[in-house]
Amino acid sequence: EAEVAQSPRYKITEKSQAVAFWCDPISGHATLYWYRQILGQGPELLVQFQDESVVDDSQLPKDRFSAERLKGVDSTLKIQPAELGDSAMYLCASSLGTPPGELFFGEGSRLTVL
Amino acid sequence: DAKTTQPPSMDCAEGRAANLPCNHSTISGNEYVYWYRQIHSQGPQYIIHGLKNNETNEMASLIITEDRKSSTLILPHATLRDTAVYYCIVRPPFGNEKLTFGTGTRLTIIP
């Protein structure tokens, strides 16, 4: 069964350092989402791509976060500089982009900022 | 703003049916009800979705009230592997709409 691949699975970094997460969606999925999940809360959308274009980045802290999906396939989410409050699970999801629009999530990347 | 209301936690005995309620009194006419679950340290997993008719698949059944203001997810024979946080989400079915998660219901299956 096809899966959304994410790496790294775990990342520990010191504040002010740069960190990057990678996501490879299910083949053929046009829509890609990055979510952030703080412990004890539901996932919150950071950015949504349709192919290589950003559809929604209204909740992305653009002073330190950036995301790209250059060829409309895999995607990278970067944080620079990392802050203590960025400690969270970063989840990537993809969907075909057609009804009913089921999202398939990866296992996530857990970030700890010291 | 939360569009759904769920109890924060529930327990269910192993082998019994688990019934998870969700209130969505402000649901729009074209919005579907989706259910996802998240097992500890994993990404959310799609369970089922519906508009106004009851739905059933290999994982669960979804019962939506006639006025569509509430629904119930039913796991017919709960196992320990069903212990997870369950999210009820309302969303247009246009295919590229985001999912907006609340805090969900933490379901614990008791041996």
Protein described:
The complex is a heterodimer of chains A (114) and B (111). Chain A has 114 residues and is mainly beta. Chain A is 0% helix and 48% strand. Chain A is built from no helices and eleven strands. Chain A is globular and about 40 Å long. Chain B has 111 residues and is mainly β. Chain B has strands spanning 9-13, 18-23, 32-38, 45-50, 55-56, 61-64, 70-75, 84-91, 105-110. In chain B, strands 1-9-8-3-4 form a five-stranded mixed sheet, with no helix packed on it. In chain B, strand 3 and strand 4 (45-50) form a beta hairpin. Chain B is globular and about 40 Å long. The A-B interface holds A 4, 30-31, 33, 35, 40-45, 48, 50, 55-56, 91, 93, 95-108, 110 and B 32, 36, 41-46, 49, 87, 91, 93-104.
- Gap from first CA to last CA of chain A: 36 Å
Major sheet of chain A: 7 strands, mixed
In total, the number of strands of chain A is 11
Strand content bin of chain B: over 45%
* Radius of gyration from the alpha-carbon trace of chain A, in angstroms: 13 Å
Oligomer: heterodimer
N-to-C series of helices and strands of chain B: EEEEEEEEE
Helices and strands of chain B: which structural class? mainly beta
The helix-and-strand class of chain A reads mainly beta
> How many helices of chain B does DSSP assign?
0
**Average pLDDT reading of chain B:** 93
Q: Over all CA atoms, what is the radius of gyration of chain B?
A: 13 Å
In the predicted model, the low-confidence regions of chain B spanning at least 5 consecutive residues are none
Q: How much helix is in the residues of chain A?
A: under 10%
N-C termini distance of chain B: 36 Å
> How much beta of chain A, percentage-wise?
over 45%
Low-pLDDT stretches of chain A: none
Please outline the major beta sheet of chain B. 5 strands, mixed
| Helix coverage percent of chain B | under 10%
Rough outline of chain B: globular
Name the shape of chain A in a single word.
globular
